[in-house]
Amino acid sequence: MVGSARGERFGDVRIQRSIMETIDKVAWILVRDGRLLCVRSHGKTSFYMPGGKRDPGESDQECVQREIGEELGVTLRPATLRPVGTFEAQADGKPAGTMVRISCWGGDYDGALEPRAEIAELAWLSHADRDRCSLAAQIILDELHRRGEVG
């Protein structure tokens, strides 16, 4: 038996294995007047949902609160946090087969939204703007549009 990065060979038979990585993220969903708040990082062209990866031992709620504070300068109200859905897609800018799984949370906030840290721009996007977004953000926009939350 000879191992390889793409599979294993047993005699003359090659068995393919799916080598897929899944990036686990948490995001905040904020809809206002039928438009979804999206962000764009410095050096990127696509918009995505604000949020990020968990720190070790962090819950979804703790993660989304921390990430939104860092990226947008607002404080999410813990008592208002509610799950919106979990979405999966090919990860933007990563090799084919690298997936992103985003657990999305809605909730109210205090403060004024402003781009911070790696965030270059905020935008309120409708379903018609989906081509400006990463694949994962497009899937989220599609679902929110299907639910009648985003125009």
Write the SSE topology.
Blueprint: E1 2-3, E2 7-10, E3 13-16, E4 22-29, E5 31-32, E6 35-41, E7 51-52, H1 60-72, E8 75-76, E9 82-90, E10 99-106, E11 109-110, E12 119-125, H2 135-146
Parallel strand pairs: 4-10
Antiparallel strand pairs: 1-2, 2-3, 4-7, 5-6, 6-12, 8-11, 9-10
Mind explaining what this structure looks like?
The structure is a single chain. The protein is an alpha+beta fold. It has one domain (19-146): Nucleoside Triphosphate Pyrophosphohydrolase (Alpha-Beta Complex). It has two helices and twelve strands. The protein has helices at 60-72, 135-146; strands spanning 2-3, 7-10, 13-16, 22-29, 31-32, 35-41, 51-52, 75-76, 82-90, 99-106, 109-110, 119-125. The strands form four sheets. A four-stranded mixed sheet has the order 7-4-10-9, sandwiched between helices. The longest helix has 13 residues, at 60-72. The model is unreliable at 1-18 (pLDDT under 50).
Q: In short, what is this structure?
A:
By secondary structure, this protein is α+β, with helices and mostly antiparallel strands. It has helices spanning 60-72, 135-146, and strands at residues 2-3, 7-10, 13-16, 22-29, 31-32, 35-41, 51-52, 75-76, 82-90, 99-106, 109-110, 119-125. Strand 2 (7-10) and strand 3 form a beta hairpin.
Rounded radius of gyration (Å): 18 Å
Q: In which range does the helix fraction lie?
A: 10-25%
- For the biggest β-sheet, the strand order reads 7-4-10-9
How do the SSEs run, as a string of H and E? EEEEEEEHEEEEEH
Number of helices: 2
User: How many domains make up the coordinates?
Assistant: 1
Shape: globular
Average pLDDT reading: 89
**Which ranges are low-confidence, i.e. pLDDT below 50, for 5 or more consecutive residues?**
1-18
DSSP strand content = 35-45%
**Biggest pleated sheet:** 4 strands, mixed
Per DSSP E runs of 2 or more residues, the count of β-strands stands at 12
Structural class: alpha+beta
Question: What is the CATH homology-level superfamily?
Answer: Nucleoside Triphosphate Pyrophosphohydrolase
At the first level of CATH, the class is Alpha Beta
**How far apart, in Å, are the first and last alpha carbons?**
56 Å
CATH architecture: Alpha-Beta Complex
Q: Could you say what the CATH topology is called?
A: Nucleoside Triphosphate Pyrophosphohydrolase
